[in-house]
Amino acid sequence: MNDPSQSSIPHSKDSHSHSNPSEHGHGSGLKAYWGLVVGSLGVVYGDIGTSPLYVFRTAIASATGGTISFEENVIGILSLILWTLTISVTIKYVVLILRADNNGEGGTLSLMALAQRAIGRQTFAVFILGVLGASLFAGDAVITPAISVLSAVEGLKFVSPQFSKFVLPLTVVIIIALFVLQSKGTATVGKLFGPIMIVWFLVLAAGGITHIADSPKILLALNPGYAATFLWHKGALGILVLGSVFLAVTGGEALYADLGHFRRGPIQTAWIGLVFPCLGLNYVGQGAMLLSHPDMATDPFFLLFPKWATLPVVLLATMATIIASQATITGAFSLFRQAIQLRLLPRLVVRQTSATNRGQIYLPQINFIILAGVLFLVLAFRSSDNLAAAYGVAVTGTELVTTSLMFIVISKYWKFSTLTTTLMLIPFFLLELVFLSANLSKVLEGGYLPLSLASLLCLTMWTWMRGTKVLGDKIRAEDTPINAFIASVIKSELKLTKGTAIYLTSNADLAPTALLHVVKHFGTMHEHNVFLTVLTSEFPSVPETERVKLTRINDHFSKASLTFGFMEDPNIPLALSKIKDPEIDFRAMKTSYVLSRRRIKQAQGSELPKWQDNYFVSLTRLSANAADYFQIPIDQSVEIGHQYLV
Fold this sequence. Notes:
With 646 residues, this protein is an alpha/beta fold. The chain has two domains: 426 residues, Amino acid/polyamine transporter I; 169 residues, no CATH class. It contains 24 helices and ten strands.
């Protein structure tokens, strides 16, 4: 453990040493490092990199009214944007939170697992924070494609007013195409993302630089005093403006969520070396142009560029927003896979879309749900301005959860004193609390959307966990202790079939229901029977040397456990094939998997309320069967049905 007296902020480590998965398979040396830097530009910074499309426009519209001049509005808003980027992204994420990796992985659920490990046990408060943060991020994943693609396509209006009627249909077509292509994966397209985003950021910088000379007075915004003065004079109206300003850091959470793919160094280099300077120059350029041409406040981003460049910039912006949307969707897929592995949601179909990058996955059911949500938002709100109110709540809520979990990690895991930890985090906490309050004022304008989505996902996770507990209790009540079962089998002298049978069970001390049915209906069993329990580690990945544990009970029965990290796709046949046991043959042609197919029905007098019981039964129908989820070949599996009343 790190010495708290050291002045530097320690990097999270654990005695349970795991290699960082991102450090393998990328080559070595400077070439590999810069490859990760370019890759991070295409994935990590897609969302925050497209914020200049709408942030200044929305903030200026919110600032209308009050006693101060238009010039003071522009300088004050720009100062707020620049210092929000500095504090919320540069200091909080780049300097501090990127060091809080869970063995190379980041994200809300990873941070939750790290905080629970720091405390030494699972706690309800930490669990609720993790689930809430994950749920808000999921809401963000629905809103980001809608607002990003809409804001880019709206630029067509500046090419020709006649294109206005095509904005909505074209947005819908682009979004549908984006989600249809998800099943193909991003292995090939991903190589294009980084270079496109480099061009995008350079265009942002160029557009801003060409207008700074319009009004050099705009550089006063570098002084944070102008931000404070603006808020002081605006009063209650300033709170509304803050809600719009915070849109400048949407996507900041991606720096941490994608830590496992690109590592801390490349993400920091990309931000400090390119992203932050280019964003800053663009915002300064927008502000300078507005000081000299106040009439351009209708859309200061696209009006930065000459008329001849409008169409190319619109096309580039559309590509950038598609990349931003792709990054958010990919992040949502990873989030839901973590939730499934942590048993917060039913087993859903997870398809690997790349043979070399395990992070490239596709969840068809989640893909359809997100697509439906995005299309609903686009058709219901019809413009990026209308959607802006819905956007900030999800982002500020997620960041507040991250800061709260970091308090536990810094004080309990890094062993800093409570006072030091409080002094480190209180500025972020207060700032985010103010931003959240500002965004909550827009609940009726659209902020209810992410809150509703997050509430629905929290309710789903709670229902699934509560329902599976009730179901587990009923299964255990009906099952037979394994020792009693083995004793009865020895007395009955059953006939033995050659080969090995694997029975999946959540409790190896109880005889699996499937085995009881095999003995009851066929009067036989296999020569070797293995009761297999699949566990999920609090670590993202588990070394092969620690994955399998096998214990012999007697000549015919054994207990085994397989442990997978919460970022891994469980493959039972592959893991078992690595067991070397002279008595038990785990080869494919000698092994059969006997699985229980459970049919869940609502019971009279259930422990669950009727509505929750119905919802849980519905969720069980979404769950992928064990053979698909654990990658068991269909010709090696046998399913035996059993009905349970919950």
